[in-house]
Amino acid sequence: MAEPQVEVRRSKRRKQTVSAYRDGGKVVVLLPARMTRAEEKHWVDEMLGRLRRSETRRKSPARNSDEALMDRCAELSRRYLDGRAVPEGVRWVAPMRTRWASCTPTEGTIRVSRRLREVPSWVLDYVLVHELSHLLVPGHGSDFWEWVNRYPRTERAIGYLEGLTAAADLGSDLADDIEVR
């Protein structure tokens, strides 16, 4: 596969961080102005590699399987919910009209909208922790949010989903379902 066209943008206001994103057929790498050409080359190579790995993970058929969702739920439950949330089943479903995902606590099942197949892993992880928390607390009360907020990127993921909802003009129902407290 041919290397993409790369545009390097330097900024005097940028002090330490380096970031990159795709803009059509090219990759834009944002660097601090003070970096040397050798540092620039290093960071361009590094950021191209990171983008490739991220895109490969997102497109991976394994990530998009129901089995992978179940495995991810097990890991997230261990890490953030003391291993207490154990679903009977987790599966991808056709895009839902008003939700990103849903849980039926009485059956222990979780359904995740296929719309989330393309989001970053940390956003999907938030949605899974949210639904796993419903296995512990069915409603959206403060005790529910205590569990959900154990996931460190909760507020960031909610913001991402709110932006995705607005950008896709999916309606306020989706945004309301991910509201914080």
Automatic annotation (TrEMBL):
InterPro entries: UTP_pyrophosphatase-like, YgjP-like_metallopeptidase. Residues 93-151 form the YgjP-like metallopeptidase domain. Signal peptide: none annotated. This is YgjP-like metallopeptidase domain-containing protein. Coiled coil: none annotated. It comes from Actinopolyspora xinjiangensis.
